[in-house]
Amino acid sequence: MSTAPSLLIDLAGVARLARVQRPVVSTWRARFAATQDPFPNAVTDEIGRPSFNADEVADWLVRTEHGNNPDAREDAAAAATPAGFSFADASAVAELEALIAMYAQTDSLSELTHAQLNDAAAEFDPSDRMFHREIAAHVGRGAPWLAYAARLVDAAYSPSAALALVARRHAASNRAIGSAGKLVAEVTALVVDATLALTGNDTTVVLDADDAALSLAIANKLGDEVSTVLPSDVEARRVRRQLLVEGHWVGDGADPATRSVVVARVPSNRGEDVAAILQAVDEVSLSLRPADAAVVIGPARALVDPLTPDDELVRADILRSGQVRGIARLTTGLVDSAIRESLAMWMLGQPAGEVPPAQRATAVADLSDAQLTAATRADLVSDLMAAMGGRRDLRAHHFRFAKFVATSSLQASSGSLVASAKRGGRPSSANVRALPALLDMAGEAVRSDLTPFEVSPERHDAPAAASVSELIAAGHLRRVQGTRLDADLLGSEGLVVVTAADLDEPASIGRTRVDQLTFATQHPSAQLTRPGDVVFRTSPTAAAWVDTDGSKVVAYPARVLRITPADSGGLVPELIAADIAVQAGGPGAWQRWMLRRVAPSAIAPLRRALSESADVRAALMDRVARLDHYIDTLTTAVAAGTVTLTESDATASALK
Q1: Assuming Cys at both sites, which of 77, 102, 483, 491 could form a disulfide with 155, CB separation 3.0 to 4.6 Å?
Q2: Is 326 left (phi over 0), alpha (psi -120 to 50) or beta?
Q3: Which residues constitute the domain of residue 500?
């Protein structure tokens, strides 16, 4: 048997092993270079990325008591890499996973000859469904990572933990996988919760064939009470290895006599476009029998957001099947390798009871700005599950996130499938009826500062809230890009510059300026703001400000939303800014922001009322500032002993 070469570890790996920040390792190298016990020398250096003998580094950490890991020797393999091995190499990773899966079957791997190792793989995996071919490939390679696999299991404390560690390092070295990367724990838990909610007696759960972590989480939650299978038309080798190590038996294909719940993660591979994603979802939909159900998790750009005409037709065909019972748009940051990507979840199945297609409703929820806490997950699943029932279930359920739309109208819609589901977009009918009384109460509370505005009790129809992308498409709104300004041009004279940071403190607007002639020379096509423009940003949080005067320069990444004067669609600048302030931030989020609208006849009087209210508020804030200044000066003077407060008899009596 060949012995494994020394394990190599880079500076980032040393930091993980020592449980310190990366710069600390560089400090150790420099500080102890001239001492009697210096940090070990690098054994390789590829383009400024030195690698070290992992065992020498672990010995040094333990010997010198540096770092925060007294078990560095035992843990070295978890942070190191064998020579010639790369966690970015999918084939090499598959061989390592196969060795770990074999280790779970026999503890004597290191004692086997190459031929015995190959024979053992054939014995444990006679159908070659999990690891036989990977072991054979590794033997053909000379079995260089056999000892490393054993050390990795020891460092991780179990074969299962070792496989999870390998998966993490493989994902970290392969960020280009994008949307097909590892799901974070919160969204995995959501899919598990949805699957459990759909699973009943005599149910078979069809696990996802490509996402080992997701399938394992579902299998662990289901336990032995529910039969789990993998699709019969795919190999799913990585998933099978993980389930084997965890002790889960998994079959091939659902039993035709049982109800199935299919779990599908899309995309399964990097590089799949929207068309491929929708094709995979369509295949899931077509595979469902009348009693079956499915949970699909994938990019919102394919499942809910506006599409190109060709892709829109494909999605419409899936919706026309009538099986999409629930749709939820989720927040960003739920895929490790695509943190800017928003996900969406579909629940598919036939509604309980005899519900005619024309009377079916689909639950639609937009959680773009919601964190997936345990309570949020439970309430969302409860909302979506109500759509799996009949009309009685809909009437009996109290909804937190979802609203219901006629499935037929959803099938015919273009654009975002969840645009109208944003919470807060329109009050409920009960709240609408209470608004006149609430307005009277609110007006009475501010009567000493402001004369309440005259209102009529007559009701009128107001346009429904709409997303920014829909309003732009309809011609009611325009987006104007900010100007990329050279910082050297900014000064204290000239045109006022509005930056993204200014939106946190609008009072600071006016401090930064740019020379008008220089600006016109360097940016001849740039547009200045116009009165009523809404300056906004998307990161780090959503924020907006209304420019009532115009003629300002907006510095990128800040941008402008400009209402079309001839066709405003009921948009009010101040209302837009207020709505943006409570929306989710992030790249591209602005297209999904829901904006309230008013009747065109109400725009002018509403703006006048808002302007007068803003003036009163500014005056009150000025009074508060002057009062704060007085209090601060008074306490400072008394504490310094420069003045003495006196009390009248009436004041003294009141204080007793």
Answers
A1: 77
A2: beta
A3: 466-598
